[in-house]
Amino acid sequence: MRYEGTVYRPPSEANSLLIQATIGCPHNKCTFCQMYKGTRFRLRPVHEIKEDLAMARDYYGDGIYSIFFPDGNTIIMKTDQLEEIFLYAKELFPRLQRITVYGSARYINKKSLADLQRLKAAGLTRIHTGMESGDDVTLERINKGVTSTQIVEAGLKLKQAGLQTSEYYLVGIGGLERTREHALESARVLSQFSPDFIRLRTFVPVPNTPLYEDYHQGKFKLLSAHQALQEIRLLVEHLECENSMVLSDHVSNYWDVQGMIPADREDMLASIDHALQIDEKRFRPPEISRL
Known about the structure:
By secondary structure, this protein is α/β, with parallel strands linked by helices.
């Protein structure tokens, strides 16, 4: 397999075969992200991707059960190309159970429902999509390139196509100024399409990003540990999803908040309340992650 640059994957894809289908991110303008800065976005030729799949089969055998195709927003590839890649992967790996990609609402919405249904039939099972926030003010400030209406449209389309949706909520990305609006608007948006997974990530400023500079200039106020937990509590309290799993599966988070909405809501709120009783000094400083 041939890799270019740093390859990023969600923690839940730790046991997946990683095959780069795209290089970089087609948007690459989010003010908090430095993952693909300095990388020109491009699609890898289908024949190269298939060659890498064949190399993986020769190296690992045909027992692969999960494949994740990075980089950012692989869903942007033409439906015919993705279909060809997925079908070839299933041919090489007869035990394959899961194929996943990254895809933001902006690029998901470029696909028709029929396109997404074709991809599901070809083997696509889940899309990891970083909404970050459902608050339009916050989305504009972080230059996400998408609105809350578009996020809902994409979520409903994925659900109709039968594809699992793994949504990412970025705790604290609204700053102290909009922490309440960020949580409540995100709960409103998520409740409209009930994603299969709501994955919590806590914002930590990363050098060489515009939001990092705003933080150091005092223009952006980070949430303390307790404030971040209070924001999560507000989100969980107001989620009206049907069978959505909330997960805190990232090292940036202060506390393991996990459970189904609505079944485990009260247990999650009780767990957060317990964490809020712990001296804040025992948590990491907000500007330092444990990565």
